């Protein structure tokens, strides 16, 4: 918890602890004397000492160690009794030192002493409650920060795996064009330059506009079309309003890479179908391709770095609000991703 927030909690507590007795005192206007006002002031100062004696010393000793419950209880009771005797001594010294004449208010009665004991216990319990509440909040926040840090480190690690993996596959595609002495190799290198620029500068962000991700996907598809020499092999369909959505960078490309890597090439067009559909807050992304005999199945550990990274990134960035399904039917392999949380916001999901 921020220091300023802790200070505000203390200020609010003392404002209430002073205000309530003052209001009660005002109900006895005819009995208010200068002596009573001095007595109340000294009493508030004493209760502040009690509070911070417990807050700064007793709580760290008892709740910050491995003491048994019985030992902590003994320390608590001893502290209360000690503070109670100090309160009695404070009352007597204040009365006689300033000549306040407080005996007419029955401050030396058993009832008054028991009231003082109850007040000391109340302030002690409040000190324990506030101290432990702040400690509990800080521990929870620290644990949450550690989880966020671990998740971010894992996401960064996933990106370092994904980018070289993507770069390696794309270089292989361009190499095949160069090997065949294709006139389209220079254009492919320019597309690769655009893709690498996106990877270097945009993929550092937690989220990117969906439009940019689709633009990046189109560059990749153009590279693949050059390699396959079949512009009709891929069908890309974008439906709905996509301008309001943001997605993790390189999310779509890893699934599409898988389709090119494991899909059949000699099939009736389109060999690969990509559908991107926006429906309000929901975003659906589906890739289908004709399967090879060795098409990886769902759950197979060797299904590729790209798909493994995609699954893990979705688990970290969209916990509880995404759906990733992989199916294989009638010679087609389909990967379907659905995001149904606030995908139009570029804030961290842990905030």
Write a concise synopsis of the structure shown:
By secondary structure, this protein is α+β, with helices and mostly antiparallel strands. It has 8 helices and 7 strands. Residues 295-302 and 343-351 have low confidence and may be disordered.
Describe the structure.
A hairpin with a 2-residue loop joins strand 6 and strand 7 (332-339). This protein folds into two domains: 3-142, no CATH class; 182-339, Heat Shock Protein 90. The longest helix is centred in the middle third of the chain and has 70 residues, at 110-179. The protein starts with a helix and ends in a 12-residue tail after the last strand. It has 351 residues and is an alpha+beta fold. The chain has eight helices and seven strands; from the N terminus they run H-H-H-H-H-E-H-E-E-H-E-E-H-E-E. The radius of gyration is 35 Å and the shape is rod-shaped. The chain is 62% helix and 12% strand. Helix 4 (110-179) packs antiparallel against helix 5. The strands form two sheets. The chain has a five-stranded mixed β-sheet, covered by helices on one side. A two-stranded antiparallel sheet has the order 1-3.
